[in-house]
Fold this protein.
Amino acid sequence: MDIDARELEKGNFVILDMRSEVDREFGSIPGSVYVDTNELLSDPPKDKDKRYVICCDHGILSRDIAEKMRAMGYDAYNLKDGYYGYIKYDMDKTMAKDIKEKTEESIRKKFRKNLMSRFTKALSDYRLIDEGDNIAVCISGGKDSMCMAKLFQELHRYSKVEFGLRFVVMDPGYNEDNRRLIEENAARLGIPIEIFESDIFDSVYQVEKSPCYLCARMRRGYLYKYAKDHGCNKIALGHHYDDVIETILMSMLHGAQIQTMMPKLHSTNFQGMELIRPMYLIREDDIKAWRDYNGLHFIQCACRFTDTCSVITEGKSDSKRMETKMLIRELKKTNPDVEKMIFKSVENVNIDTVISYKKKGVKHHFLDEY
């Protein structure tokens, strides 16, 4: 038996979210609790007097769980269209004008210190914007790139430096729901996006080894080309502070090398083009706080691999990045400054104590000068 998101407000339900804890990091229904479906069925709730609603991404996998709970004597329902259905309902309740004004005011006031100040500090510290730049702000549809777009808009209103902006969305093969969510969010937030399409998802879908890496490389190439063809000299990506420290650890633990995510890079294939990361000093938790304060809902990863993975594994993720994120959280319990230490470590490399290193592709060994 299905109920829709509107009915959640009418009844006193216990909402059981069977999406992975990784997915819940990107957003969840207020008051919902995470459940492992296997544990839910093998060790169900003691209280049969309550009304339960089971939620998954699209209301497909949860339907079977709700039916099994009803067979066990529980008053259980499936959330029609799942979390995506809830997102659409919640977005439809608020006026676009109200959302735009609220998000902009929150950047100027409530989140000025943690978002805007760190945004402008990164621009200054790493010299990311120059007079006359024309920047393609690359929007994937997630919280990071959407927040970056609003920060750029706010900066553009008051900056003494003259620069141009284009808000670019590349559709590599999104499903209809995700494409619509990106378009609706952009309209509600007042971001004048321009969308161009590619067939990247089709190209990498059958690739077994490192499809995500290949997809990211191809996306960047398409973005560089589109930006250059439309008069831009820089592309801006929404990677943040947490992405940086996770990359440092992942490089060591899984790549046997020490490297970081740079705040800016010259393109090797598109002459005169540069990549910048203006969110470099912004913490992910602060982006989430801005999102939740304004009641916003964004896509996580809208790729076909994510869609398939959620069907096959019921949302469980074996992402190396998420493993690294969890590792950092554990380390932080005994060392509150561990994130800052990881970030600063690549700014304090002592070459005298390094066995070997590469510079511009050339390997140097300590025995060369010993």
